[in-house]
Amino acid sequence: MSEQFQPKVVAFLCNWCSYSGADAAGRAQRKVPAELVRIVRVMCTGRIDPQFVLEAFRQGADGVLILGCHPGDCHYKEGNYKMLKRHAILEQVLSDFGIEKQRYCLDWVSASEGEKFIRVAGEMIETVRALGPLRLPHTAESKETAV
Amino acid sequence: MREVQITKDLVVRLLQVIEPRFDIEKVNKVVLNVGSGLGISEAVLRQWFASLTKGSKLENVAVEIVATEGQEISGKLVVSTAERVGVFLCECGPNLKEALDFPALIEAARLLDNVVLVKAFSLLCSGDGQQGLAEDIKTNQLTRVVIAGCSPREHEHTFKKVLKQAGINPYLLRIANIREQCAWIMSDKQQATDLAALMIKAAVRRVLVQEPLEEKEIDICPDVLVIGAGITGMSAALALAQKQRKVYLVEQLPCIGGKTVRYEESFPNMECAPCMLEPKMDAVLHNERIETLTCSDVQEVLGYFGNFEVKVKKRARGVDEPACIGCGACVEACPVELDNEFNENLSKRKAIYLPYPGVLPNVPVIDKAHCLRFQGKECSLCEAACAFGAVNYGQDDEVRELKVGAVIAATGFDLFDAAPLGNLGLGKIPDVYTSLAFERMMSASGPTEGKIVRRDGSVPRTIALVHCVGSRTAEHRDYCSGICCAYLAKFARLIHHKLPETQVLSIYSDLCFPGKKMQPFFEQLIRETNTHYLRVRNPNALQIGQTDGVLEIAGVDVEEQANCAGGTLRREKRLNVRADMVVLAPAMEGSRQAEPLSRLLDVPVDGARFFIEEHVKLSSFATARDGILVAGCAQSPQDVAGSVAQGVAAAGMVLSRLVPGEKIQLEPAVSVVDEKRCSGCKTCVDLCPYHAISYDGEKHVSVISGVLCRGCGICVAACPSGAIVGQHFRDEQICAEIQALLK
Ligand SMILES: Cc1cc2nc3c(=O)[nH]c(=O)nc-3n(C[C@H](O)[C@H](O)[C@H](O)COP(=O)(O)OP(=O)(O)OC[C@H]3O[C@@H](n4cnc5c(N)ncnc54)[C@H](O)[C@@H]3O)c2cc1C
Ligand code: SF4
Ligand code: SF4
Ligand code: FES
Question: I need a surface site. Which of B203, B379, B656, B726 has the fewest CB within 10 A?
């Protein structure tokens, strides 16, 4: 097949730093090299229920990216630290599900780091592209039969 | 028809289609697209569906089965068809029209459930655009609106207003950011268009499950809390009171005036400091709109701009202020003696004391840690000595609950502690003093009544002043306090005035005399007095010792330096001087009380305990927390002129923004606890960064204050019972978006 695999990556961005960072990238007309992550805005990474990440994978995401304010800069003071704690648990849960750990990533992007947003989002897409489509163990069979 | 194997996998897929993981209230119908290649009969499917949804919210929902090709099962939940969604695309002038395939986007949006109108505008945020939008909402009886255009951070508030005007709740709006986060960031037009279509679909799905929220307004309180009664806090309080504001001026010490009132004279005009301050202090104490609370500490600050609830603890003075005339008879009678910290420990005071002569308010205070009576011993000498019955051992601490609309932190500075730097001799050699101690020595109200004398009573023939102690060095404080050169020049001038025969050695590495007055002051000092400036490489590296009562100061001079072909040639000279007295000028730091206060105020301090300002130039007197301002040396080291200017600026900011009678809008997108689901575990209570959650002991549930909550959602994600609803960012809303972005 000549068609390149187009990864579906859901990105949760906190409203204050990272969403603004993505806006700043656009405003500066910085371009992502290929596909863009699919952005879901939340007020703070502290709002991100691990269920959302699982839901994204269940709905067919090939990768999930979470971007928040740098540690110490959370608009609500400590939301990103709360996320950081959940992050460790999430990594464990995902690996239990057989999801490669590169498919899930947490990083910090400030409102002025448009450049960093482009880089992190771009790298995530390429990492996931290299891994190929996500095949959750219990849906693997169905995908095969569906082809 | 062949028998279907009901594989685990098929069940999983069906479950994915139908399982309402999150509360979806208005599902009208479930549409299942079933690949005919699977060979499942409709009857079997319905049976399956019924068994799988039994007892769930979907139990009685209509099921429509659509046969498709292949072997896939997919499906969707159809939410209330009564909703009429309008999708408005903004071309943003030429910006988006060229970058995206608009006809394709319009076509795709038309096919979405519940969408009854799709329309493109050339500039939706313009006056015409807004008007057109309002009209379309009304004529098409839209119930929800999706706008595809620029970032919600640009114009969400504009379009919310339009919705309100057109008669729908502003929270039934969703913006698809197809400009910054799509057209402008992607290079390929086709890819960008595909993403934009996806974003519009996600916005439509989400808006369908959004809830109307009610906007509330509340009254503001125009009163103001000022913390710290130094020159900064007093200036702010007086400016506020002038405009009829009630001010609570809270001071931790028994007296007002801050540091400045304890100086003899002040640069740049060598004005008598107490004379300059006293009229202000009087004005503060006699102003009926300013309530000065001395011996007081702020204990709690809850709330937000316009409505803060503050608790202040007023420690009992032990003397009734109205009854006391300040005669000091009680002080005379007290048998206890200890170091007087108000004179930098250069003199003694009693356990009941006036910090220094002329102090305001002129009312003694009992130091309970040292009073015999409070140590359980028999003594009532001061009570007996008071002819006015003012001494009151039974006076209680008092906790005041105040309501204010804004807070100004004017907590001033403290000096860097130079004692641990053993090489400078502070704390070891008696005649090494800090600048604040030397100020007291020179002051007529101080320990020596203004006489400059050594500990042994002799007059110093040579006094060394050491600049930059702990300043401008990565090891301690990396900044320049900006005023120490100026006050050391003031010291030299005063020494010359009091002891014309005494020589002053000012030991520095760099000099800083900014502003319109200080350079001429310095030059005149050099011309007219016996003051010598000695340059050393690093004042912090000086070795100060003492032999036979004479202080010896050794260091490295940097005077000789020459450039030659091979590089820089530096001839180091050793500095070796003797003095009878040394005065250190340590770095100014934020008040030692700033750190605990910073936690109460929720405004951070930096490593040197200065409050972090909102913007270092444009709003140095505001902080990141709306309604909390900072002024004077609490923000940065500065002189009296700068402190007063900032105090008045902060007051002006309050006066212009906190207008009596005006109301403040509350953000309705806050979190609420569903009492039925809350198990009372209290997990959330300590998590909230704004102390917005309390526990209702009667109902055994947590309650969120709609006024304090800022809607961050931390508690929502943390509640183990799923009992907290993050309004406008509900689980089902976020999940609707996730689903739409992927399928
Ligand atoms: C040695 C020396 C000499 C100086 N000489 C001059 C001079 O000649 N001319 C000049 O222009 N400037 C001079 N300055 C600078 C001057 O002292 C300051 O600009 C001025 O004191 C700043 O006033 P302030 O009100 O901000 O702080 P401060 O004077 O420090 O007053 C702060 C007040 O807040 C109170 N406080 C602190 N924390 C709390 C709390 N948590 N709760 C309640 N109350 C609290 C303190 O007790 C104090 O009363 C000199 C500085 C030094 C160190
Ligand atoms: S965390 Fe949830 S269940 Fe526990 S007290 Fe708070 S709202 Fe109630
Ligand atoms: S949403 Fe945030 S601010 Fe509101 S109650 Fe929960 S934790 Fe506190
Ligand atoms: S607001 Fe950005 S992580 Fe909390």
Answer: B656
The answer to whether the predicted template modeling score (pTM) of the entire model surpasses 0.90 is no
Q: Are B470 and B431 found together in one domain?
A: yes
Are residue B360 and residue B443 in the same domain, yes or no? no
- A133: preceding bond cis by omega (within 30 degrees): no
B153 touches chain A (CB under 8 A): yes
Give yes or no for residue B2 having a pLDDT over 80.
Answer: no
pLDDT of residue B4: 46
* CATH assignment of the domain containing B672: 3.30.70.20
Q: Residues with beta carbon inside 6 Å of ligand 2?
A: B 673, 678-684, 701-702, 719, 721, 723-724
Measure CA of the first residue to CA of the last residue in chain B; give whole Å.
30
- Do B568 and B452 belong together in one domain? yes
pLDDT of amino acid B45 = 79
Nearest to B267, CA basis, from B529, B483, B503 = B483
| pLDDT category of residue A4 using cuts at 50, 70 and 90 | confident
Report which protein residue has its CA nearest ligand 3's atom 6: B715
Q: What are phi and psi of B224, to 5 degrees?
A: -135, 140
CA-based R_g, chain A, Å: 15
Name the DSSP letter for residue B689: T
Choose from B671, B712, B734, B735 for mutation: most chain A CBs within 10 A: B712
Q: What is the mean pLDDT of residues B266-286?
A: 96
- Consecutive H or E run containing B360: none
- Euclidean distance between CA atoms A52 and B21, whole angstroms: 11
- B295 located within any domain: no
What CATH number should be reported for the domain holding residue B14? Answer: 3.30.2320.50
B12 and A138 within 8 Å at the Cβ level: the answer is yes
Helix or strand (DSSP H, E) at B167:
none
Cα–Cα distance, B651 to B644 (Å, whole number): 11
Residue range B344-399, pLDDT digits in tens: 999 999 999 999 999 999 999 999 999 999 999 999 999 999 999 999 999 999 99
Please tell me the number of the ligand nearest to residue A78's CA. Answer: 4
In a domain, B170, yes or no: yes
Examine the domain organization and report whether B37 and B99 are in the same domain: no
Among B2-6, B37-41, B126-130, where is mean pLDDT lowest? B2-6
Q: How many domains does chain B have?
A: 6
Contact B185 A44 (CB under 8 A): no
Partners of A15 on chain B (C-beta within 8 Å) are 153
- Asked if residue B195 belongs to a domain, the reply is yes
Which residues on adjacent β-strands are paired with residue B346?
none
Q: Is B180 an interface residue toward A (CB < 8 Å)? A: yes
Residues of B in contact with A26 (CB under 8 A): 151, 179-185
User: Peptide bond before B268: cis, by omega within 30 degrees of 0?
Assistant: yes
The predicted-structure confidence for B225-237, as pLDDT tens digits, reads as follows: 999 999 999 999 9
Asked if B428 and B573 sit in the same domain, the reply is yes
CB contact A4 to B (< 8 Å)? no
**How sure is the predictor about B41, in pLDDT bands with cuts at 50, 70 and 90?**
confident
Please provide the CATH number assigned to the domain covering A9-146.
3.40.50
Tally Cβ neighbours within 10 Å of residue A23: 25
Shared domain for B607 and B653, answered yes or no, is yes
User: For residue B71, what pLDDT band results from cuts at 50, 70 and 90?
Assistant: confident
**Ligand 1 cavity residues, CB under 6 Å:** B 227-233, 250-253, 258-260, 263, 266-267, 297, 410-413, 435-436, 439, 483, 487, 490, 588, 591, 593, 597, 632-634, 638-641, 643
- What range defines the domain where residue B711 resides? 666-727
Name the nearest CA neighbour of B231 among B357, B445, B411, B490. B411
pLDDT in tens, B147-158: 999 999 999 999
Same domain, B94 and B173: yes
State ipTM.
Answer: 0.93
Write down which residue in B587, B603, B623 finishes a domain. B587
Whether residues B548 and B461 fall in one domain: yes
Final residue of a structural domain among B151, B174, B208: B208
The A residues from 70 to 129 touching B (CB cutoff 8 Å) are: 75-79, 82, 86, 118
